[in-house]
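Entry:
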Amino acid sequence: MHFHVITLFPKAFSSYLGESILKRSIEDKKIRVSFYNPRDFADNKWKRVDRPPYGGGPGLVIEALPVIAAIESALKKAKKAKIIFLSPSGKQFSNEYAKKVSKKFKHVIIVCGRYEGIDARVKKVFKMEDISVGPFVLTGGELPAMTIIDVMSRQVPGVLGNLDSLEERRVSTSEVYTRPEVFKYKNKSYKVPKILLSGHRAKIEEWKKGLTGKGG
């Protein structure tokens, strides 16, 4: 899967994509991430892309044309692509959405906003879907874009190595344990639940379901 990210701050992704599973997946060519900075498409010598909003108001708005040019550049590499426009008022992102998109598209273009947003005419030029990662407002779309890349990458065969690692495909709880079986902290003993030591797979699964039903 190839992710194409439209962002003013591509360096913001370096640390996250440069570690652990995503780094290995990029090295193994299971996923690819390309960046397109609207500043590179600005037609002024200062590479400025932000302007005051029409109608007044605080902050600055990102111009439409540099963003349009950045998306066009991505589309040259991906004729059939899902274009996601990150917005706090968009459709709630979920594992089901990620699974659906990853099955249908090999290319995903993610448009990251900044400041007071992007000129709305961009959405009149391209067919795109407004997506939100949660009921809150961030300073930019870079963190949501990383979230989407992470969740969708997990749907790509080989990224996790073992398909059973997908929490959404198995009974998962908020409580997990590993060695040692017992440890002490401030004179109090903390033990692994006996059921997990029983070796009785059916009962263990029932225990997990019980925790899940309680919000675990």
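Helices lie at 14-17, 20-27, 64-75, 95-104, 122-125, 142-153, 201-213.
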